[in-house]
Amino acid sequence: MATLIKEQRIVADSWRLLSRGPKGELPEVPPSGDVVVPLALWLARREALLAYPGKLGVWLDANEGPEAIAADLQHFALVAVNFPKFGDGRGYSTARLLRERYGFKGELRAIGDVLHDHLFFMEQCGFDAFALREDQDAQEALSVFDTFSDSYQTSVLRPVPLFRRRLSAGKS
Amino acid sequence: MYIYDEIDQKLVDERVSQFRDQTRRYLAGKLSEDEFRALRLRNGLYVQRYAPMLRIAIPYGLLSTRQLRKLAHIARRYDRGYGHFSTRQNLQLNWPKLPQVPDILAELATVEMHAIQTSGNSFRNITTDHFASVAQDEIVDSFVWCEIIRQWSTFHPEFSYLPRKFKFAVNGAKSDRAAVAVHDIGLHAVLNAGGEVGFRVLVGGGLGRTPVIGFVIREFLPWQHLLSYCEAILRVYNRYGRRDNIHKARIKILVKERGPERFREEVEAEWAHLKDGPLTLISEEIARIESRFTRPEYLQLPATDARLDTALASDRAFASWHRRNVHPHKRPGYAAVTLSLKQTGVPPGDVTAEQMDKIADLADRYSFGELRVSHEQNLIFADVQVADLFGLWKEVKALGFATPNVGLLTNIICCPGGDFCSLANAKSIPVAEAIQQRFDDLDYLHDIGEIDVNISGCMNACGHHHVGHIGILGVDKNGEEWYQIEVGGNQGEIRPGVAASLGKVIGPSFARAQIPDVIEKLIECYLSRRDSDAERFIDVVRRIGVEPFKESVYGNADQRAAHRRGQLAPA
Questions:
Q1: With contacts defined as CB-CB under 8 Å, which chain A residues touch B39?
Q2: A124 touches chain B (CB under 8 A)
Q3: Do A163 and B14 lie within an 8 Å CB cutoff?
Q4: pTM of this structure
Q5: Mind listing the pLDDT tens digit for each residue in B342-396?
Q6: Which residue of A has its CA nearest to B155?
Q7: Which residues from chain B sit within 8 angstroms of residue A90, using beta carbons?
Q8: Domain extent for B251
Q9: Do B417 and B394 fall into the same domain?
Q10: How far apart, in whole angstroms, are the C-alpha atoms of residue B39 and residue B122?
Q11: ∠ CA B117-B104-B29 to the nearest 5 degrees?
């Protein structure tokens, strides 16, 4: 089991992540519990899933953009974004768009090849939960969130860029 | 020089701690080779043919003497006493030891330097015109805009794992001395009819194995929108750039596959969401960045100097140096000077620690304690009083940096090549040296006039061979080193009307020993075809095409056909 870090703390994970089978077949949905379904399942069985008794989440693969679920976000308590390889940076854009453009307020979870050294930027982009790859030392990874004390850019954590904040600090 | 504020400094210090921790975890076996690779590359650390190679960032090529002395110290203490200035205006050390790299970065941080994002699939060092802020044809001071982009692109959380590396070039003058057409994004400052500053934005240019001239995505982008527009371009690239094949992952391939028009539409659609948002630049920020640059305290001087005129009239060697290596300045009584790192027998761009210290002393005495690295791998003193030129020349000459060849055939741009680089197919430094030896007659060089000869040891094109007027590319044929010749490339519109272009391969490749002969034939062809000595090599190629040059090397079409049938020796 991957360790889950949420809001900078190690927590137990109540969610069950459903994936397609080896031939791409859609997974079966269990009778109850909190489930995260792949985008394809949501698109195929939307009506049935809306009646699901547990909490519902959806996960996007790296090549699946947030546009596909932008109009449905009110149905999800959790959106997960998969990082097939740590060097695949598409999920960072997906996260920002979900937060900044589509206003998603629920849990935004990074899954897949999620490593210590990438959590800082992921958090900046709006992820608040991280399902660490199994071999990662979660305790050690908790220190990573204050790697940098500031950043120049706009991001989900710092919507106002440093040059505007510097200016208001100079004026006050 | 841009002077860090507390936050700038803190971020660089925090980067050192981060990398120290990453190195510790790697050495303790907690990080795999592959995972550490991605992290060390972001700090400029390659594992090369003989040892690691550390690429130190020199943002937009601007360096203070305090920083240069620190680089000399680092080269001595942690390396073998020399460094190599690269075509990206950076400095490379070829022999550092991995466990010591965090200490090197800590030393760099004490002089506001770093190796952040000098490699890896992220934003690279932003390059610009080496005559920025002193050029007579200046539109804006490009250093200011480079620094604004440097800050935006440093540790950008969304764009830290791009499909591939990403290179910006910014040009602030009328002439393009930054090669904006062959960068992922090229920005060329322009004024609109109302006199307001904006940028012509080019996207998708680049060299490497698929050389492309960038396309103009916007003729005029008002400066306020610079960052939000770049953010839109980068978001489209980050989301849709290819990640399945490293050789097709640059933005130029995305632009090509989409087509420029569709790519533009996608960027504009993304930008519609970002435009006028918090990233919109404000004049107070431009003024703040401007005010953090130290500026020379220029004196009011006459434009000419009698002693200079006397020296020019009496000393022929000084006069020829002055003609090639001294450049006009926007302030009367001042000039910019190139220190040539292209002395025959020394790998282009290489400087020893002792030389760095001596150059720092000279820059303190002659040029307000600052210097620049040019993408042609030379050093520039930007603010020299014309009355001091003769004295400076004598001192520079004693150091071996007064080769009067700027713009001439022996001012070769050359990558480290197979002598150092593990990617190279062939050596490049000995080729440069052989050409320099063949063309050692200064009068002949001046007669040939302006020409760029660029050499790369492999198709990654670090020596910019595609944009050399003559380009030389090392290729591997069954384990042997061969060299392909291109003619007709041009790095940018340095002279109005002569746009950037890519060279064309003229024919089958040559053994290394043949290269000086081939270059000589090309030069003879040019000399016999030019209208006057005002018509440069590249102008003649543009006027008559590549065919006559091809003939001069391989013979005419009949002879070439005969040669292919094996009936004739090469011309």
A1: 117
A2: yes
A3: no
A4: 0.94
A5: 887 788 788 999 999 999 999 999 999 999 999 888 999 999 999 999 999 999 9
A6: A151
A7: 238-239, 243
A8: 127-289
A9: no
A10: 11
A11: 75
